[in-house]
Design a protein that fits this description.
Rossmann fold, 2 domains, three-stranded parallel β-sheet, two-stranded parallel ribbon, elongated
Length: about 130
């Protein structure tokens, strides 16, 4: 079976809980293909950090563990862009948003988020802080 994993399945696979971890791990392991959308990874990163207090390095490690699973498929370039910003101390979603915007034809990321703009500029991405 080829499946697309919802964020809650990914989270249960990484976080022990009231019996759902086993079902999540079995579903992921038994699937021929596990499609993971970038939207799920954005939610995954946010929930790990905000709800479970995971540090950015822990979030990045969790995403990389998922990517290293043989049956998992993702849009690798956009995920790598998210990981680059996460590794630099920013938010995974900011890297994803900036990459996706460039893919859609934009040339400058704009935000009120100073840190996101600074980190993207450090990576050579055109970014502008709105006042």
């Amino acid at each position: 079976m080829k499946i697309v994993a919802d964020t809650n399945v990914l989270l249960r696979a990484f976080l022990p809980d009231e019996g759902q971890q086993k079902a999540a791990l079995e579903a992921l392991a038994s699937a021929e293909t596990v499609a993971v959308s970038v939207h799920s990874l954005c939610e995954f990163a946010w929930v790990l950090g905000r709800s479970y207090g995971a540090k950015k390095k822990q979030v990045a490690t969790s995403i990389r563990m998922l990517l290293d699973t043989g049956n998992v498929v993702v849009d690798r370039p956009i995920v790598d862009a998210g990981l680059a910003v996460l590794d630099a101390g920013g938010d995974f979603a900011d890297g994803v948003i900036a990459f996706d915007g460039r893919w859609l034809g934009a040339d400058t990321f704009v935000s009120f988020d100073r840190k996101a703009v600074r980190l993207l500029e450090q990576q050579g991405v055109a970014a502008r802080l709105l006042a």
